[in-house]
Amino acid sequence: MIRLEKRPQPSQAWSMATPLVAVLATMLFGGLLFGLLGTNPFLAIETIFWEPLFGEFAFYYRPQLLVKGAPLVLIAIGLSLGFRAGIWNIGAEGQYIIGSLTGAGVGLAFYPLEAWYIFPLMVIAGAFGGWAWATIPAILKVRFGTNEILVSLMLVYVAEQFLASMSLGLLKNPEGFGFPGSRNLQQYASAHNAEIVTGTGMHWGVVAALIAVIFAYVLLNRHMLGFQIRLTGAAPRAARFSGVRPARLILMCLGISGALAGLAGLFEVAGPAGQVSIDFNVGYGFTAIIVAFLGRLHPVGILLAGALMALTYIGGEIAQGQLGLPAAAIQVFQGMLLFFLLALDLLTNYRVAWRKPEVA
Amino acid sequence: MDLSAINPVLLIASLMVAATPLLLAAIGELVVERAGVLNLGVEGMMIVGAISGFAIAVETGSPWLGFLGAAVGGALLSLLFVILTQVALANQVASGLSLTLFGLGLSSLMGQRYVGVKPPQMPDIHIPGLSDLPVLGPILFSHDLMLYLGVGIIAAVWAVLKYTRAGLILRAVGENHDAAHALGYKVVRIRIAAILFGGACAGLGGAYISLIRVPQWTEGMTAGVGWIALALVVFASWKPWRVLLGAYLFGGVTVVQLNLQAAGVAIPVEYLAMSPYLVTILVLVILSADKSSAPASLGRIFHASH
Description:
The structure holds two protein chains of two kinds. Chain A has helices spanning about 10-35, 40-50, 50-55, 60-85, 90-110, 120-145, 150-170, 205-220, 225-235, 235-240, 245-270, 285-295, 300-325, 325-345, 345-350, and strands spanning about 1-5, 350-355. Chain A is an all-alpha fold. Chain A has a domain at about 65-295. The mean pLDDT of chain A is about 85. Chain B is mainly alpha-helical. Chain B has one domain (about 5-115, about 140-285): ABC transporter involved in vitamin B12 uptake, BtuC. Chain B has twelve helices and no strands. The chains are: A mainly alpha, B mainly alpha. Chains A and B meet through strand 1, helix 7, helix 12 and helix 14 of A and helix 3, helix 4, helix 10 and helix 12 of B.
């Protein structure tokens, strides 16, 4: 008979190993799924994981890895801080949208002026927009005890409506012949989040994501706030006795994650996406939740997990084009990954023992 | 703008239709939470119920088999939540989120062949005499049977929780799982049953959207109803009849804003469409001060290790 025994301390080895095992299990079951859909499973897995990195057109896909990975890492880093302390911001998608709107709005307000200070102002505005949107659930939680999960999620739907309203109204391109969507920021040099080195995919969002990783690492390991976050996550009661103020922690965690999501939105709208349009958001805010967990809520882990998730996005697109694999299959694949990860986490906290049932 | 075009009788009748998916999903989640489990995967189970019900109804030509399939589909997805939280003892918040993310992907994969297909119709009941009454007829006696079934489920849940031994045990498990375990109740099995019931109800709610309310299949068509259902359980202070009240309130907001859109009010469409979500936040703010009625073991992991 199988019994679970709680480990006195979580196993370090399993904590590192579970993401890898989860990825392998997802490849196995994802392959089965692709097989059921009538695609050769080996070919599909190879197309998704090998083609973008080492295939014939890798020179084109490798930069995409940075473009798709940066927003995921940027958002996931912010989310992981809250998740560690049991503060669940799941509305990053909304903060991403609002950040892109405020950031792009500032840029468009200066059009057609060309000046060096426009892009920095947009960055500040983007971070501010995301921060403000995330502070709504934070304040409501601190002041009224409202559940931040539900409020932050409701605000995603509100933000989507805002986005629709803005791209059809205030931010619409006056020279766009009536089509919805703003001016293209890629054609406005002062506001364009251009590649820093041409052909590498390296834009300012990638730089920001790397800074965020380092910042989060230092915060968690060398700073009082990081210690308080980890303490609250491990032992909430002990944290309160030792003088952690929950209200401050909630405002900080939600605020930082909102600001980072807003930044991700701004870098996306001013760079790869180019313009504010009704459906320019593609769900990075939700996928980042998977990235945060897959990276074990650890900054370096998130960096790796973000790269892997970006790979499945790009590989998924290739598989869509070459093998006719439906786009939703990749979404299922990503969801599956989170499943296996959560299920296998059992091994980190419990020891599986084989034992005969005791006779009473 | 012409507000006189809005017919109050039709408004109330369509409010009840708009409220039913919410009501079904929320009453299921209420049972789950009374058993001490927080399943945030309602949205995922609803959308999977919506497509499995739709697909089965289209293939068999019977809306009833469709609803049955939706309940089974929702329950099957919730089985994954069971494995994660009751067997693998994973964090319930993260597991619920994964259920929603997975369900959204799975549903659009399942639904590819059904975009633009028309489902078989579910007829409205017609009771000679009663259904022809002015005002009361269209409001009370002219809906489809699922709507009445939804109200019936609420009554049944209320009666079971309040008057039966099974209800008492369920509540005991939700209030204090260690004490319930010490009394010899099978905490995990009872919770599994509650989670499966919640999944089936969410599936029914989803299918009500795809088969009756809309009726067609589009990706992501539940559009946050599952999340509003979660808020509704808080609104109802975990009491069944208040779920009905809350669902009709939210249904009312949805229907009124749709009617205002149609009547061409000077408020832009997008701002009207935000209103159900904003009302949800507002209601949460007003009602969150009092948490005393929440089940005491809600969201805590149970492992019989002592």
